[in-house]
Amino acid sequence: MKAIVQDSYGSADVLELREIERPEVEDDEVLVCVHAAGVDPGVWHLMTGLPYLIRIAGYGFRAPKSPVRGNDLAGRVEALGKDVTQFRVGDEVFGTSDGTFAEYVSAKATNLAPKPANLSFEQAAAVPTSALTALQGLRDHAEAQPGQRVLIIGASGGIGTFAVQLAKAFGAEVTGVCSTTKVDMVRSLGADHVIDYVLDDFTQSSQRHDVILDMAGNRSLSTLRHALTPKGTLVIVGGEEGGRWLGGTDRQIRALLTSPFVRQRLRTFVAKEGAEDLLVLKELIESGKVTPVIDRTYALSEAADAIRHLEEGHARGKLVLSVERD
Q1: Contact 209, 265 (CB under 8 A)
Q2: Smallest Cα–Cα separation from 167: which of 143, 183, 202, 188?
Q3: How far is 280 from 200, CA to CA, in rounded Å?
Q4: Stretch(es) of the chain classified as CATH 3.40.50.720
Q5: What is the distance between the terminal CA atoms of the chain, rounded to a whole angstrom?
Q6: In 141-266, which residue ranges form alpha helices assigned H by DSSP?
Q7: CA distance 185 to 162
Q8: Burial environment of residue 56 by CB neighbours within 10 A (0 to 12, 13 to 18, 19 or more)
Q9: Is the CATH code 3.40.50.720 the one for domain 130-268?
Q10: At what angle do helices 41-48 and 303-312 cross, to 10 degrees?
C-alpha cells in the first residue's frame, strides 16, 4: 500500500510517498480502507519532533518510532479483529489512529464511530482531533453554560471553527477572534461578535468573558486573565511558541501552578480519543448544529504541501488529504 513515511525528524521535506506493507490487525482493532485523512498541528509536531518534550514522552528520541504520519481518518471497514463486534466489513467510519496518511490503517475499534451520514469522507476526516478538542475544552474543562460570554481565540482555525459552533450549540454568547480576511467566515459560523485582532485588541476592552478558549498561543497569562470575569475560566489549548524544548507549554504549566491561588480557573488539557465523544459529535453534525470547515483538500502524495500550508498559519478551518487509488 502507499503511505506517507519519514525516517528522521525534520521539515516537510522528510516526508516521502512509499510502498509499505499493509498493517496487521490485532484482536481489538479494525482494518480501515482510508478514503481521507485530516491534517492538524499534531502531525507537524510529530514530523519535526518539536518541542523536544515529544521525544522524551516516548515518540522516539532520535527518529520517530512510528514512521507513518497522520492521526485522523474516514473510510470503510476492510477487516475486523476477532474481538470486534460493533462494526461490520463495509461500514463507513471516522475516528483516530496512528499512521492515517496511508491507504490502509489498523485502528482501535474503541477510537472509531459510524461516519455522520450527511458528511463526505473528506468532511468526516476533518472532524476527530480538532472537534474532540473543542468539545472537551468547552464542555469538560470550561464547563460552558447557556448565557455565558465565551471568547474563542483562534476562531478561524481547525479547533476554533468547531469551538464557535459548539459554544453556540451550548447556548453561549460567542465572540470569535481572528484576522481581517476571516471575519466574515467566523461570523457565518454563528459567532455573535467577531474581533479582528489586526484592528482591535480585545485585552484593552472593558468587556469581560466568563470563558476564554485560547488556541493562538501567543498572549501572556496575565493578559488573558485581565479579559476574564473575576471567577471566569481560561482554557489553554496547545501552543506554538516558546522554544524548542517547551514549545508553548510554559504558559500551560504557569496556568496550572497559578490556578490554585486565584479565584479564576486556569486550565489546560490533552484531548481524549474515543468513540463516546465521536458519537456526540456525530449527533451534533447530523442535526445541523456543527459543520466542518475545510480550507483545502490535497492528494495523499501532496501531504508535504498540506503541512507547509498548515505551517504558514493562514488556513481557514481544516486541511484534508484525499486518498485516491489507482
Answers
A1: no
A2: 143
A3: 35
A4: 130-268
A5: 11
A6: 158-169, 183-188, 221-226, 243-246, 249-258
A7: 12
A8: exposed
A9: yes
A10: 110
Query: Residues spanned by CATH 3.90.180.10 within the chain?
Result: 2-127+292-322
Query: What is the CATH architecture of 2-127+292-322?
Result: Alpha-Beta Complex (3.90)
The single-letter code of the amino acid at 298 is Y
The pTM score is 0.94
Torsion of CA 221, 227, 228, 229, to 10 degrees: 140
Residue 214 three-state SS? strand
CB 30 within 8 A of CB 109: yes
Q: How far is CA 260 from CA 166, 200, 266, in A?
A: 28, 32, 9
Of the candidates 186, 190, 187, 188, which has an alpha carbon nearest to the alpha carbon of residue 167? 190
Grid cell for residue 247: 514549545
What tens-digit pLDDT sequence spans the chain (326 residues)? 999 999 998 999 999 999 999 999 999 999 999 999 999 988 988 898 865 666 666 566 677 888 999 999 999 999 999 999 999 999 999 999 999 999 999 999 999 999 999 999 999 999 999 999 999 999 999 999 999 999 999 999 999 999 999 999 999 999 999 999 999 999 999 999 999 998 998 888 889 999 999 987 678 889 999 999 999 999 999 765 555 545 567 777 787 788 888 999 999 998 999 999 999 999 999 999 999 999 999 999 999 999 999 988 888 999 999 998 76
| Cα 18–Cα 22–Cα 23 angle in degrees, nearest 5 | 120
Instruction: Report the distance separating Cα 130 and Cα 285, nearest Å.
Output: 14
